[in-house]
Amino acid sequence: MVISEDEKKIIGSYFRGTEKTIEENRVFEGTFHFDPPKAKCIEELKTGEIELRVIIPHSFPIPPPRAYIKDEKLFVFPHLRMGDGQICPPDHNAWIKNASLEGFFKYLSEWLRDAAQENVSLPDDDYELPDFPIGSKLTFIFLKEKEEAEHWLLTKKSEIGVFFFEQEFLLLFLKQFKKTSSNLFQKGIYVWLPEEPIIRFKRPPITYAELDEILKKFDLSLYSILEVAIRNQIKEDFILIIGFPIKDKNKDPASDIHWQASNFLFTDLDKIKRKLVLRLKKSFRKKGIKKWREELKKRIKTTDFLSLAKDKYVTYLAAKPHKICYLNSVDCSEKYLYSRIGGQVKTKSFLLCGCGAIGSNLASQFAKAGCKEFSVCDYETIVPGNICRHYLNFDSVNESKASELVHVLKKINPWGNYKSYELNILEGFDERILKEFDSCEFWIDAGLPPGASECLSFWAKKLEKRLVSTYITIDAQFLILVISGKKSNPPIDALEKRLIESSREKKGSLEECVKLLENAVSTVKIKPNIGCYFLTFAATGAQMSQISAIVFDIINEVIEENKESGKILVYRYNKRSYIYEPIFNEEIKL
Predict the structure, then answer these.
(1) Which of 303, 334, 365 is the last residue of a domain?
(2) N or C: which end of the chain has fewer CB atoms below 10 A?
(3) The predicted structure's pLDDT at residue 424
(4) Host domain of residue 536
(5) Strand 325-331 relative to strand 349-353: parallel, antiparallel, unpaired?
(6) Taking Cα atoms as reference points, which of 307, 211, 220, 218 lies closest to residue 265?
(7) Sign of the torsion formed by the C-alpha atoms of 96, 102, 105 and 108
(8) How many structural domains compose the chain?
(9) How far apart are CA 370 and CA 393, in angstroms?
(10) Which phi and psi angles does 19 have, rounded to 5°?
(11) Residue 483 belongs to a domain with what CATH number?
């Protein structure tokens, strides 16, 4: 980036320091001058000077320049990245209206003046979490039920105890808070604070010394944490989470909670213990104690971990160089996880039979929509030829379609209760399976073979379950959905007969669709998805994605409308517009 003489004068009017080129970017470091605040302000900035590092990209103005505060003691403002001091205000691109170096430095000067006067976070502004500097690749995921959030918000005093979590790769899932131990999950320590854990303005504790300072405001300390850890036999580094109330806007009362996780250092306690043993050994020898080994063993037993922690370890942790290693902490509660799709599906539980191309893609849609109870049934395994249309991939080849799909669904929605059944529907169900299937409110036949489809329809009618049967013709030219009425009245077989009658009356595309179904197998008048069982079956993964999206929306619409009647829908693939277009839609009552 070439800077003109006029621009150098502008920079000189703001900056006093050094200039260098790093990877074609211009980097300015030194004292930045801004308009001195006239009102009461932060003591360190009353002169209108601050040490900054500003990077001007070689392709200026896009991407925009970046400004960093150099003095870590001034990592206190809102809209400041605590890890490196980068200034990140919400309106950071406002200066582009005057896209010049002068425009950027003027904007920066005004922001620093407002920051010095504590005017960068106003009462009507959206609330902003303290920026905890992340030092680990681990991600802590927590979910809050409404009742749990209300419980913590009513807890006006600080609280400390044990919580349990589950780890899968780099993800940690908060499971429960309880006083009794559990062998199912790992232990961590939680601390609830009735206020934000901030040292000054919006600065969270970055070192253990600062954390100790905050805890003491609430009648706790680092020693309190260690005491709980030791009494619960936690003798390695552990996860510490700090909970505190949050709000929607700065002026609002607290309405929600946040859990911030960190990796608490504990392993060095053994090093301190070994040093203590060495000191005791030297002390005994100097005193001439002959049986020093016996005396040492006796003393170690009486020197318990807690006194050691209080006298040595807390001092060690609170030393300034020891920074807290924060984890990225993500709220995956329903309020945040599904806000972009307008909320979750209303039906609580589904049974999906057939985990093929349609079924697997459809199941993923329900998991992404936050469906909490979802059971899948299929006795086949994944083969390489499935992958081109299936939601699963080569990692699942030769594995059960049902169990592998459930494994993937849990990765999409770890809070869902997903079950797999490796069953051949034609072989029937025992009493236990029937009872579990009966607990599912809505059943889905996702392209089952004819015999299996008839069997499922029989049980849906017997157990009075609403069933949607969805299938496609060869080449995925037509998509058919047959949805039984409430309590399977009218049932699927009656609706299929009505579809055949309608095709004879209406002719055209609908008649063509039914003929494709009838000719799939000569003994079957209208049954699902026979083409899938031949290598010549031609349909793309993109079509399967479209089909699953249509079926998902229709099922949700049926649930939303909650009508008694059954429904038949037929769609035809338009090769010109590349979408499925409706050609038949009829509601039927018995």
Answers:
(1) 334
(2) C
(3) 92
(4) 344-588
(5) unpaired
(6) 211
(7) negative
(8) 4
(9) 22
(10) -135, 135
(11) 3.40.50.720
CA 282 to chain centre: 54
Assess whether 407 and 460 both reside in one domain. yes
Tokens matching residue 30: 């030194």
| Spans in the chain with pLDDT lower than 50 | 521-536
Spatial separation of the C-alpha atoms in residues 541 and 64, rounded to whole Å = 40
Within a domain: residue 126? Answer: no
Same domain, 260 and 287: no
127 occurs within a structural domain: no
Return the amino acid letter for 394: F
Q: Is the N-terminal amide bond of 194 cis, ω within 30° of 0? A: no
Residues 378, 405 within the same domain: yes
Q: Does 378 lie in the same domain as 327? A: no
Question: What's the pLDDT at 265?
Answer: 81
Is the domain of 526 the same as that of 540?
Answer: yes
The whole-number pLDDT of residue 526 equals 42
Note the pLDDT of residue 513.
Answer: 87
Tokens of 172: 């940690």
| pLDDT computed for residue 9 by the predictor | 86
- φ, ψ of residue 64 in degrees (nearest 5): -70, 160
- Torsion sign, CA atoms 492, 497, 503, 505: negative
Same domain, 583 and 451: yes
Q: Which pTM was predicted? A: 0.74
> What pLDDT shows up at residue 187?
92
Residue appearing with tokens 């950027």: 104
Place of tokens 């392993």: 267
Q: Residue 34: which of 137, 103, 141, 107 has the closest Cα?
A: 107
3-state secondary structure of 232: coil
* β-strand pairing of 442-446 with 349-353: parallel
Do 515 and 534 have their domain in common?
yes
Q: Do 33 and 91 fall within a single domain?
A: yes
Q: Where among 88, 116, 144 does a domain terminate?
A: 116
Euclidean distance between CA atoms 423 and 437, whole angstroms: 12
Residue 95: the pLDDT is: 77
36: CATH: 3.10.110.10
In 3D, which of 235, 222, 40, 15 has the Cα closest to residue 105?
15
DSSP string of 54-105, one letter each residue: EEE-TTTTSSPPEEEE--GGGTTSTTB-TTT-BB--TTTTGGGGG-SHHHHH
In a domain, 122, yes or no: no
Distances (CA, A) of 80 to 110, 111, 214, 329, 351: 15, 12, 20, 18, 48
Residues 6+ apart with CB under 8 A from 236: 266, 267
- 327 phi/psi in degrees, rounded to 5: -105, 150
Output the pLDDT for position 43: 86
Distant-in-sequence contacts of 167-170, Cβ < 8 A, 24+ apart:
170/137, 170/138, 170/139
Nearest of 485, 443, 435, 412 to residue 347 by alpha carbon: 443
CATH number at residue 237: 3.40.140
3-state secondary structure of 117: coil
